[in-house]
Design goal:
548 residues, 6-stranded mixed beta sheet, alpha/beta, Nucleotidyltransferase, domain 5
């Protein structure tokens, strides 16, 4: 039979197995393969044998092919040219993806990986390194995951999301002691942090350093002492006292002696706290009462002489910016805009944050998106003094609303803000004792709890219901309410009137409550100015296994 003849041998049938074949069928097929000549005598492929070379060359070539090395000869032994041998000495240098893929297979102890080890690093050629890592078998008892290792670690470190638009912060207690968590961090945005971003670290110079912020307003004197942490700061001490520095200011344009004495007593307590704590960096701010009073500069000098504290009278623009910096972490990440308001004792600040083109900005960076702002010369103290705050009738309440609403006409871009609200995704964010009181009454708290109030959402209907409920309360019942008390019982309805004026001018469907504001904004700016938070350089994973 001629070599290469494909005709059937006698006694064989198509598809017949060798074990069941007739007589000498297998032997004949074996001899026919032995007599078959190669098509190309110069071939160096494995298993090719020629006349006179015998089986030794074929066995040698087959063995060389099993180890991945090319054979050097064929039938004539020297048919492979010198150039072919020179090219065969060039080793393939695998790229990074191939090295990582080869290391992944080397680390695996499964039988399937061991069986395919002869294929070398080219087995995963054309696949990315991440895909090769995901293809690795997991050890016994481990759970398989399709998340890459870096993203998996970052996702585990990110805080859990809570609420309709934002994660729930770890808040301090009623006295503000405890942790102010990631919501006060430099990367704070509400909502979960992207998995690919590393959490910032506190610089070595700032570790253990204390910062303080003091806000001397028309009604309150408040101090906050904090220490920077990886995702924000931790409050270590706080102080708050109602001093009513602006009492009678609307009638005389001057700070009264009893009011200044009360403020000086509170400031002396704050000075002692700063000295006892060893605070290194602080900022002390006085707001509307000292701005509007004729004897405001003289009072600032008296404070310096008697307490050693150097207060600065902040401008209205600075006060509005600090309020935004302190509350920015409560901005809904999906919002296109925010109407932020701070109802104070002698003034009220309203800020429009236009976030339609914020491009992922969050935290203190949101102060760059202030589109318009206004500072109204109306607060709970002077409004209650003009209209009365204890026994408020329906007509009295409407008069207070109209008084506050008249000042809103000076707000620039008021029509543009109304159009943005009609487009949707604009919510209110309130930082004042008025909105925290409304939230406490809404939740029916037996005692004011900052953790329940700060960051809470209230629908438009809930706000209306709470205002009506407070209006129906007599003065004595407001005094007995644990969320109001005697210090605010005659001021809370004036604050509700200012809030109602804002809601009627720019109605939003939702309101978020913030028990934070100017002091937190001061702390954030002080720490950011000191470059407290520094991001780690991106972590580069080195491939495991043997590399060159």
């Amino acid at each position: 039979m001629r070599p290469g003849d494909d005709r059937l041998h006698p006694g064989s049938t198509p598809g017949q197995d060798d074990a069941t074949g007739a007589g000498s069928g297998p032997a004949k097929r074996k001899r026919s393969r032995k007599r078959r000549r190669p098509q190309n005598a110069g071939s160096i492929q494995a298993g090719v044998s020629g006349q006179g070379a015998g089986r030794a060359v074929g066995d040698r070539d087959a063995k060389a092919n099993s180890t991945g090395a090319p054979s050097r000869g064929g039938a004539d032994g020297k048919t492979a040219s010198a150039g072919s041998r020179k090219r065969s000495r060039k080793r393939h240098r695998p790229n990074r993806a191939e090295r990582r893929a080869g290391a992944a297979r080397t680390d695996s102890h499964s039988a399937a990986e061991t069986g395919s080890a002869a294929n070398g690093p080219h087995h995963a050629e054309g696949r990315g390194a991440d895909e090769a890592l995901r293809a690795r078998p997991h050890p016994a008892g481990a759970k398989a995951s399709s998340v890459p290792p870096v993203a998996e670690r970052e996702a585990g470190a990110a805080p859990a999301a809570a609420g309709p638009c934002s994660r729930e912060p770890d808040r301090a207690g009623p006295d503000h002691r405890g942790a102010i968590a990631a919501t006060h961090g430099p990367h704070c945005a509400s909502g979960s942090r992207p998995a690919s971003r590393e959490a910032p670290t506190v610089s070595e110079e700032a570790q253990g350093r204390l910062y303080a912020a003091l806000d001397l307003g028309t009604n309150n004197c408040r101090l906050l002492v904090a220490r920077p942490e990886q995702r924000g700061f931790r409050v270590v001490d706080a102080y708050s006292r109602i001093v009513r520095l602006g009492e009678g200011l609307g009638h005389t344009n001057r700070l009264s002696e009893p009011a200044m004495d009360r403020a000086l007593e509170a400031l002396a307590c704050c000075r002692d706290k700063l000295q006892d704590r060893g605070v290194e960096r602080f900022r002390l701010i006085a707001t509307e009462a000292c701005r509007a009073a004729e004897n405001g500069p003289q009072f600032i000098e008296r404070v310096r002489q008697e307490t050693g504290l150097a207060l600065e009278i902040a401008s209205r623009e600075t006060e509005a910016r600090l309020a935004v910096a302190g509350c920015a972490s409560l901005v809904c990440p999906d919002a296109n805009g925010v109407v932020l308001f701070d109802i104070g004792g002698g003034s009220s600040e309203i800020v429009w944050l236009d976030l339609r083109n914020r491009c992922g900005a969050r935290g203190v960076a949101l102060t760059r998106f202030i589109r318009a702002w206004i500072s109204l010369p109306v607060g709970v103290v002077n409004l209650a003094e003009r209209h009365g705050g204890r026994h408020v009738t329906a007509d009295t309440f409407e008069a207070m609303v109209n008084d506050a609403r008249a000042h809103l006409e000076a707000f620039t871009l008021g029509r543009e803000l109304s159009a943005a609200i009609c487009d949707g995704k604009v919510h209110m964010l309130g930082t004042s004792g008025t909105v925290t009181t409304l939230a406490g009454v809404h939740f029916g708290l037996k005692r004011y709890d900052r953790r329940r109030v700060d960051g809470a959402w209230m629908d438009n209907e809930d706000v209306t219901a709470m205002i009506e409920r407070l209006r129906a309360m007599p003065y004595e019942e407001r005094v007995d309410n644990p969320c109001i008390g005697a210090d605010r019982a005659d001021l809370v309805l004036a604050g509700c009137a200012i809030l109602e004026a804002i809601r009627r001018r720019w109605p939003c469907q939702r309101l978020r409550v913030a028990d934070r504001g100017l002091r937190e904004g001061i702390l954030m700016e002080l720490m950011a100015a000191d470059n407290v938070w520094r991001r780690k350089p991106p972590h580069r994973q080195r491939p495991r296994g043997r590399t060159r």
